[in-house]
TrEMBL record:
<keyword id="KW-0663">Pyridoxal phosphate</keyword>
<keyword id="KW-0328">Glycosyltransferase</keyword>
<dbReference type="Pfam" id="PF00343">
    <property type="entry name" value="Phosphorylase"/>
</dbReference>
<protein>
    <recommendedName>
        <fullName>Alpha-1,4 glucan phosphorylase</fullName>
        <ecNumber>2.4.1.1</ecNumber>
    </recommendedName>
</protein>
<dbReference type="InterPro" id="IPR011833">
    <property type="entry name" value="Glycg_phsphrylas"/>
</dbReference>
<keyword id="KW-0808">Transferase</keyword>
<dbReference type="InterPro" id="IPR000811">
    <property type="entry name" value="Glyco_trans_35"/>
</dbReference>
<dbReference type="InterPro" id="IPR035090">
    <property type="entry name" value="Pyridoxal_P_attach_site"/>
</dbReference>
<keyword id="KW-0119">Carbohydrate metabolism</keyword>
<comment type="similarity">
    <text>Belongs to the glycogen phosphorylase family.</text>
</comment>
<comment type="function">
    <text>Allosteric enzyme that catalyzes the rate-limiting step in glycogen catabolism, the phosphorolytic cleavage of glycogen to produce glucose-1-phosphate, and plays a central role in maintaining cellular and organismal glucose homeostasis.</text>
</comment>
<comment type="function">
    <text>Phosphorylase is an important allosteric enzyme in carbohydrate metabolism. Enzymes from different sources differ in their regulatory mechanisms and in their natural substrates. However, all known phosphorylases share catalytic and structural properties.</text>
</comment>
């Protein structure tokens, strides 16, 4: 018998003819479609299967290498991933875009139309989930062995539609057309227990062990999605868990005639991975959420132990095989679960297990917002995970002994550090658990890491200063430049060579061209063409016509008071009122573009969307300001839409109150695409400004220290309103009913600002207006603006997620990078 060796497979030839043949084979053999009857969606599935073969082949080989060389793998535990559409990204990474285009062209099929068919997996809320996906992309690119573990939500983040100016949530159906990227792994199934009680038993060796007798057992099924790297022979694996009923359990109830209970049990089990919670920075304490967290964390750790034992490696060297990163506290129960698995299941002594646990886990914090910090009522956690509560108590007892030794007699410190909040109803503090159980704790930007050490985790920093470090976030330049902005990509390649997507510091090479008028005009041409494309998309999605030559002023991100989309709107409406008063005012034409989802239960965030749509309706239909300003609320901001919006931005709005945005990553994506930033000294803005140069960044607002001082001194927003006529005019305007709708539609927003203003909009209003004035002035000097735009891109190399991953490898994971890019 003659067979091709893997790697020389007929399915993975790289010529246009090979690709076309494989595509047709998949259409007919895998999908059962006649080419003459196939739809665009069939074409998409067939091409996806074709490309998946190429990715799988690399993935299998890189995993095999990891096993034979016993390499320490990175496990990135995250309740959220936001990969975006896969197909175009894989083609880019494999260097097959042109070939695929040619292969399909030969059949009269348009690649772009095929790419448009893919439903993106919206398995995350925003920055945290997208960061996880950028990191898998970079892990694969720099050649680190990795698995991203998470939940295969059947329903991801809702689709946002706008009806009568309000956000209306529509159920996400990402799996409805079938998902060609995932592979079900029957061999990796896990069981996860819930409830019941614990017993002390004596094992065969005469040793006392705790045995957990659960009330319920749920099955975790693994679905693998390979994540390719750019120009790399390594693949990352995204392994997502789907919950299913354990069959035997169904039958037991069924056989006893308790059919209803049997079905109930099945439904409850399947519900675990049904739906993503749509709150980005709000802990609501729902039991189902805790179940989800434990479910995927337990599946992940059991899976790692299984792989470990397949390698023939004993459980006490778990930390040598795995570096486990906790993406926020969502998987923090891992601390107790790994202890349980090592002590109860694998019979390690407590101290040995604790050393292994602490050498394995590391924790990334993503927010300082107190309402986002997770804590679970002791009764809820103990009811669901009785053994884990015992383990948490024991960890706490050891830990508090250590604290007493370091700080004798300091009971208040003890109470603050304790894993249990006992100030009222008792809670388990997940951030404390994560800190105690981790090797390293990091924030996501310099300022954020510093504030972490000074505020939320100050007592931990005093106890273990060396545990703390910073890893500034990064973004993948493959998806967010090469794929999203091919025009810019071409110009960068022509000017800086072709290696920039895998070595972003190469962008520096364009800096000498800043003063070349020809280069500047090419640069402007690229941006204008991106703006034309976005204008067409805006017209299609909203019916609004915008001028591509106007300044595109963009704020796209989750809607949140601390992000201050309403400060942006105060500026929009101030400009509008000024134009009404003074039609000849020398204000350059601007298009304000907003986008972002509000958590369905977040009342004020939904009012902020309503304010944006009201401003849009009023301004776009007022002939007095025609050709001057326009306002767009772009519905359903997601990864795909982001890829159309970022490349068209002239101005990036990063206006959060200083000290509130942990990092931000949209700020990086826009600056990398040549937008100038108007922003506060918050999150990664601080580092972006340092990198691109203060003269190429519009800074305004209080800094984090001034925010604390102002609040402490008794901030009175109404005084600002009383003393500033412009501010008074715009607030009164919003409250007057002139924006249409019910007269008191915006009363809650106005009252919130005048009486509380927790995010100090009124304090930063003047500074913001002044910075916007500087924006307008620079915009009127196109050569100077272009120069600043080029310098933004040229100097953003450090914000590649490849750099972040290298930092993690050095400072956190202690993993060697196989492939050093030249
Ligand atoms: C999230 O997206 C973030 C923090 C958080 O606690 C929960 C969610 Cl869903 C964001 C931060 O707000 C943002 O500043 C940061 O850039 C991002 O996480 C990634 O670190």
């Amino acid at each position: 018998m003659k067979t091709k060796t893997p790697g020389a497979s007929i399915r993975t030839g790289t010529g246009a003819d090979d690709l076309r043949q494989a595509f047709l084979d998949n259409l007919v053999c895998a999908l059962g479609r006649l080419p003459s009857h196939a739809t665009s969606h069939d074409h998409y599935l067939a091409l996806a299967l074709t490309v998946r073969d190429h990715v799988m082949e690399r993935g299998v080989k890189s995993f095999e290498r990891g096993d034979t060389q016993q390499i320490r793998r990175v496990a990135y535990l995250s309740a959220e991933f936001l990969p975006g559409p896969h197909l175009g990204n894989h083609l880019l990474n494999l260097g097959l875009t042109g070939t695929a285009d040619k292969a399909l062209d030969g059949l009269g099929i348009d690649l772009d139309q095929v790419l448009a068919q893919e439903q993106e997996p919206g398995l995350g809320n925003g920055g945290l989930g997208r960061l996880a996906s950028c990191y898998l992309d970079s892990l694969a690119t720099v050649g680190v062995q990795s698995v991203g573990y998470g939940i295969r939500y059947e329903f991801g983040i809702f689709d946002q539609t706008i009806r009568d100016g309000w956000q209306v949530e529509v159920t996400d159906k990402w799996l409805h057309g079938g998902n060609p990227w995932e592979v079900y792994r029957p061999g990796a199934v896990q069981e996860v227990k819930f409830g019941g009680h614990t017993e002390v038993v004596t094992d065969a060796a005469g040793r006392s062990r705790v045995h957990w007798v659960p009330a319920i057992v749920v099955r975790g099924e693994a679905y693998d999605t390979p994540i390719s790297g750019f120009d790399s022979d390594t693949c990352a694996l995204m392994r997502l868990w789907k919950s299913e009923a354990v069959e035997s359990f169904d039958f037991e109830a069924f056989n006893h005639g308790d059919y209803d209970r049997a079905v109930e049990q099945k439904v409850a089990s399947e519900n675990l991975s049904k739906v993503l919670y749509p709150n980005d920075e709000l802990h609501r304490g729902k039991e189902l959420r805790l179940k989800q967290q434990y479910f995927f964390t337990s599946c992940a750790l059991q899976d790692m132990l299984r792989i470990q034992s397949l390698r023939g490696s004993p459980p006490d060297s778990f930390h040598r095989n795995w570096a486990v990163q906790l993406n926020d506290t969502h998987p923090a129960i891992a601390v107790a679960e790994l202890m349980r698995l090592l002590v109860d299941v694998h019979a390690l002594e407590w101290d040995a297990a604790w050393s292994v646990t602490r050498a394995t886990l590391s924790y990334t914090n993503h927010t300082l917002l107190p309402e986002a910090l997770e804590r679970w009522p002791v009764d809820m956690l103990g009811g669901l995970l009785p053994r884990h509560l015992e383990i948490i108590y024991e960890i706490n007892a050891h830990f508090l002994d250590e604290v007493r030794a370091a700080f004798p007699g300091d009971d208040e410190r003890l109470a603050r550090l304790s894993l249990i909040d006992e100030s009222g109803l008792r809670y388990v503090r997940m951030a404390n658990l994560a800190c105690v159980g981790s090797q390293t704790v990091n924030g996501v930007a310099e300022l954020h890491s510093e504030l972490l050490r000074q505020t939320v985790l100050v007592d931990f920093a005093a106890l273990w200063p060396d545990k703390f470090t910073n890893v500034t976030n990064g973004v993948t330049p493959r998806r967010f430049v090469a794929l999203a902005n091919p025009g810019l990509g071409k110009l960068l390649t022509k000017t800086a060579g072709k290696s920039w997507p895998g070595d972003l510091d190469k962008l520096r090479k364009i800096e000498p061209h800043t003063d070349d008028p020809r280069f500047r005009s090419e640069w402007r041409e690229v941006k204008l063409s991106n703006k034309r494309q976005l204008a067409a998309l805006i017209a299609e999605r909203t019916g609004i016509e915008v001028a591509p030559e106007s300044l595109f002023d963009v704020q796209v991100k989750r809607i949140h008071e601390y992000k201050r989309q309403h400060l942006n709107l105060l500026h929009v409406l101030t400009l509008y009122l000024r134009l009404k008063r003074d039609p000849k005012a020398d204000i350059p034409a601007r298009t304000f573009i907003f986008g972002g989802k509000a958590a369905p239960g977040y009342f004020l965030a939904k009012r902020i969307i309503r304010l944006a749509t009201a401003a849009s309706d009023l301004i776009n239909n007022d002939r007095d300001v025609a050709g001057r300003i326009k306002v767009v609320f772009f519905p359903d901001f997601n990864v795909r839409n982001a890829q159309s919006i970022y490349p068209a931005a002239d101005l990036s709005e990063q206006v959060s109150l200083a000290g509130m945005e942990a990092s931000g990553t949209g700020n990086m994506k826009m600056s990398l695409n040549g937008a100038l930033t108007i922003g506060t000294l918050d999150g990664a803005n601080v580092e972006i400004r340092e990198a691109v140069g203060a003269e190429n960044f519009f800074l305004f607002g209080l800094n984090a220290g001034e925010v604390v001082a102002l609040k402490r001194g008794g901030y009175r927003p109404r005084d600002r309103y009383d003393s500033d006529p412009l501010l008074r005019e715009v607030i009164d305007f919003i409250g007057s009913g002139a924006l249409g709708g019910d007269v008191d539609l915006f009363q809650p927003l106005v009252a919130n600002l005048l009486d509380h203003d927790p995010y100090l909009l009124l304090a930063d209003y003047r500074g913001y207006l002044n910075a916007q004035q500087r924006v307008s002035e620079l915009w009127m000097d196109p050569e100077a603006w272009t120069r600043a735009s080029i310098l933004n891109t040229a100097r953003m190399g450090r914000f590649s997620s490849d750099r972040s991953i290298r930092d993690y490898c050095q400072r956190v994971w202690n993993v060697n990078i196989k492939k050093q890019k030249k």
